[in-house]
Design goal:
By secondary structure, the protein is α+β, with helices and mostly antiparallel strands. It has two domains: 67 residues, Orthogonal Bundle (Arc Repressor Mutant, subunit A); 177 residues, Beta-Lactamase (2-Layer Sandwich). It is built from eight helices and nine strands. Strands 6-5-4-9-8-7 form a six-stranded antiparallel β-sheet. Strands 1-3-2 form a three-stranded antiparallel β-sheet. Helix 1 packs across helix 3, helix 2 crosses helix 3 and helix 4 crosses helix 8. It is globular. The protein starts with 12 loop residues before the first helix and ends with a helix.
Length: 260
């Protein structure tokens, strides 16, 4: 028997079971997301080590609540209810980083952006526009490929090579301009350089005449990146080298804010 004043709340068996089921259901969603958005029951059973009836029960609960969908192939895919949650979470992350983006755009004089990895694409969740008469504008919510954008490269550099290759196989590497990289092996070489130097650049690979410098933001549950973009004539390669450490310091401020 414990003494009065020193008792701790102990979950009842039903409470403990409920928390365990919630943990397992969330883990299933993460596994499906990591696999590209769809998996079969047998694959989930093998990956989690849970009995098939348990996996089936959890999956059915997620389907009933709209977090998973059963496809004609009998695979289970991420459901529509997650879209709403993801959009709201992305906007909230963007609003928390807004002050840092505004400060960054003012210091550098170019448009600043925040983007997150969303399934196989990168989505912009916040922007602070430049005050320049000729400036770059990226619509919040716009989804782009990872292989041809600065933010995409900075995001993919945070993933292991095998995950990068798996993502590229799913999306392909369409040539957006004549400068777009379309060779996965050569792209992995560039990713290795980005990891070493700590920043990435899109040199007219997404849009001709535009350069973008980007760095990873590591304080988010999903791989993220911050960037500045401008016409190539103003954002020269030499200027990009100068901007990179400023951008890294801004990203550290966002990381600290998000982790808090």
């Amino acid at each position: 028997m414990t003494e009065a004043g020193s008792r701790e709340a102990v979950p009842t068996p039903s409470e403990g079971s409920g928390v365990r089921s919630l943990d397992r259901a969330l883990a299933l969603l993460e596994h499906v997301a990591d696999a590209g958005g769809a998996m079969r029951l047998g694959e989930l059973e093998a990956l989690t080590g849970l009995p098939l009836p348990t996996v089936h029960r959890l999956v059915r609960a997620l389907v009933d609540n709209g977090y998973l969908l059963q496809e004609p192939t009998r695979s289970y895919a991420l459901g529509p209810r997650l879209i709403r949650l993801g959009e709201i979470a992305g906007r909230r992350l963007g609003s928390r980083a807004e002050s840092a983006l505004i400060e960054l755009a003012g210091e550098i004089g170019e448009s600043a952006n925040l983007a997150l990895l969303d399934h196989d694409r990168v989505v912009y969740v916040a922007q602070a526009p430049s005050r320049q008469f000729m400036r770059m504008f990226t619509e919040v919510g716009r989804r782009v490929y990872g292989h041809c954008t600065g933010v995409g490269k900075a995001v993919l550099a945070q993933l292991p090579d095998d995950e990068v290759l798996s993502l590229l196989r799913r999306t392909g590497m369409p040539a957006r301009t004549a400068r777009t990289h379309t060779d996965p092996t050569a792209f992995l070489g560039e990713i290795a350089e980005i990891r070493e130097q700590g920043w990435a650049m899109d040199d007219g690979e997404e849009e001709a005449g535009v350069r973008c410098v980007a760095v990873p933001v590591r304080g988010t549950p999903i791989a993220a990146a911050m960037s500045v973009s401008a016409p190539s004539g103003r954002l020269t390669t030499a200027r990009a080298v100068e901007i990179a450490p400023i951008l890294q310091r801004a990203a550290q401020r966002v990381e600290h804010d998000l982790s808090g």
